[in-house]
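Fill-in record for HAD family hydrolase.
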Amino acid sequence: MAFKGVFFDLGGTLFSYSGRLGSAGIAHVVRTLRLDAAPEAIGAAWGVAAAEVGERYGKDNYFLHKDLFQDTLRLFLDGFGLQASPQLAEEFHQLQLEAVVTNLPIRADCHSTLAGLRAKGIYVSIVSNIDDDYLDPLVTNHGLDKWLDDWTSSEEAQSCKPHAGIYHHALSKSGLKLQEVLFVGDSLHHDVAGAAAIGMPSARIVEPGVKTPLTHGLEVTAEPDYEIAELTDLLDLVLGVHD
């Protein structure tokens, strides 16, 4: 069946994880609470907290990423016998949000690929595990709304990949059938596993030297139907099938 639509993951797919987002939020908390510890100890403690909270949240079909990150902050501070006030936790969130929206690097071939697909009548959408306050500014600040038919956050769908709900929610917006859509992402745990579970074809983008963020509590349950090195590879893959 010809592909009539392409659903894209956001982070690691349209945007690369190769950039440095910084740690302004954590640094602000550390300064405010006067946490006396070496940077290496702080980094290690944050990694432990992130793994524990990530495994717990990873088992849920839906959650707000703001809650995940703030729970990670709370567990991190517990290890040092400290607590963040609601105001400080919100300041942490806003600084982290600003860092991602400002610094997450868009792939050089993102616009040209989306434009090429749209020019041939392919339905183009983003389906991302992210909260609205992250997704909306990333879309509009980078002018992606020029090429997209729509975009769906896990917050809007009340479902996080690999849960089936977010895929079906996006499909209902597009009016397309499962086999008419190619899902493109970087995560075997989220993007590929979720698509395969409902029978949607998938393509995985693999960037040499860049690792997909660790996913705790989830297993790899499927392999992609296709593998690509660059977004522009989709023009041959999708348009070749389409034509």
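KEY FINDING: The radius of gyration is 19 Å.
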